[in-house]
Amino acid sequence: MGNWLLQPGETIRRSELHDRYGGSRQDGVSPSRKSPNIFIFTDPRSGEQHGYYDQWLSDGSFHYTGRGQRGDQTLTSGNLAVVNHVKDGKALRVFQGATGVVQYVGEFVLDEIEPYDWGTAPSTGGGPLRRVIRFHLRRVDRPAAVPETGPLGVPFQARDEEIELASPTTPVPPDPDAAGRGLRAHHRLQNQLAELVKAAGNAPRDPAPIDPDFDLAWETPQAVFVVEVKSCTKANEVRQLRMGIGQVLDYEDVLRARGKAVQPVLYLERAPSDARWVPLAERHNVRLVWPGSEHALLQPPSSPPPERGS
Prior knowledge:
9-stranded mixed sheet, PUA domain-like, alpha+beta, Trna Endonuclease, Chain: A, domain 1
């Protein structure tokens, strides 16, 4: 419709998108008066704190929570614009991300048989439950597979392993991997795993602006492997494990929302002193790996990783 130029998988700054095509710069559902488009933005990192639990289905369709952070949602304003988009001659343009750089997923339409249903979700900040609308969207060409949002990340760039240590007067950062000995170890581990990934025939990737801030990732036919790297000493081991597991679960959640099978990985500088961490991580589908144990990670799996709780 109109002079639309973006292709699925391409990224653009949200401000530039609205400069070109109009629409609100803040709302998740953003009808435009300047062009025949309604922009829909989805990002679990920002949306779920407002009770917006969007979901990609296995057939490539998309269930999107309507507009309204508090109280029962209604079929007014942007929600009504979505319902009437065909009658009004408007294209539904779905984007991954909500602020900064966003990625165009594609053009969608409301399902003709069941365009939406009603459910419940918490208000902003975990407030009381309220009634929400869930739009049932499908691509205009009805694909059978999950939505393709372009390749993950950008090619991995080797890190500087000889980075200068912090001076004695420099404040110690809260993350041991942000400076000094921890940062050098972190870079060494990233480079080491990237070389092993390449040797196994895969392409190591750094995050693109639209991606979660992982340390390393690669794609196989079975899954996306997403890695958090952690330096580790006996003194900070427990803290690093707790922090790292939380980070990779966050990365997994963001990538699963894009319809990808994900294997989260925590790559430690050394094996944990307490053996309980390995089965604990496995219960949450996190692979715990350290130098010397990478071969098990790089063997192709026989099936995609299971969903958490399955």
